[in-house]
Amino acid sequence: MGWDAGAMGPPAGRVEVELYTDSFRVSGHLTTRFHSVGDILNLSEAGHLTVEQATVSEYADPGASRGGQSVLVAVDSILFGISSQTGSDEPSEFGEVQKRPVRTQLALPPFWVTGMIHVPPGGSPLDGLLNVANRFLTLTDVAVTCAAYPTFDGNAPAVAIQRHLAEVLLVMDTDAPHNPLEEVLPEEEVRGWLPPPMESPDSQP
User: Fold this and answer.
1) Per residue in 119-168, pLDDT tens?
2) Is the N-terminal amide bond of 110 cis, ω within 30° of 0?
3) Which residues pair with 25 in a beta bridge?
4) CA distance to 60, 88, 107, 175, per residue, from 178 (Å)
5) CA-CA distances (angstroms) from residue 71 to 27, 43, 57, 61, 107?
6) What pTM, to 2 d.p., does this model score?
């Protein structure tokens, strides 16, 4: 007998979402057991998400839009997504290792997405970007800009981006130590490990 994960999970409900592809913005609601946009996108087993009571806008023609009772959006085409349930996307401060925020920028043409990833103490920001299992990576305190469409300018508490579609990744880790050894051991102790300097033969009386 197979295990029905859905039967043991929370009841399905409506979550407002905005899904962005390279040409379209689709907004509406999803009927799902999940709340955070990261979970919605990462745990979806379908190739398409069904957005209900949806509005489809085209970046090239922001004044025009189309509506539909149900709109299917290919998961492979989603650059990033936003949901109305942002609280569960933010790093928890209880029961988890405290992570440090690292500012990063990702180019997902035609967009630049700037926000914070959260890495464990001593962890590499590059590992936090590249060596993670999830297909969609959550950033917090996010700003989105687009040179191709200057009128597009958005901010969100949390956004889930599709990592493998990012063409350029910039890390601005201003808190990274320049010399980790100096922060672990005092200079006097390190000097004590060194042998005394050898005297030059010319210095003998």
Assistant:
1) 777 667 666 676 677 899 999 999 999 999 888 888 999 999 999 998 88
2) yes
3) 20, 57
4) 45, 34, 27, 9
5) 10, 19, 12, 19, 26
6) 0.73
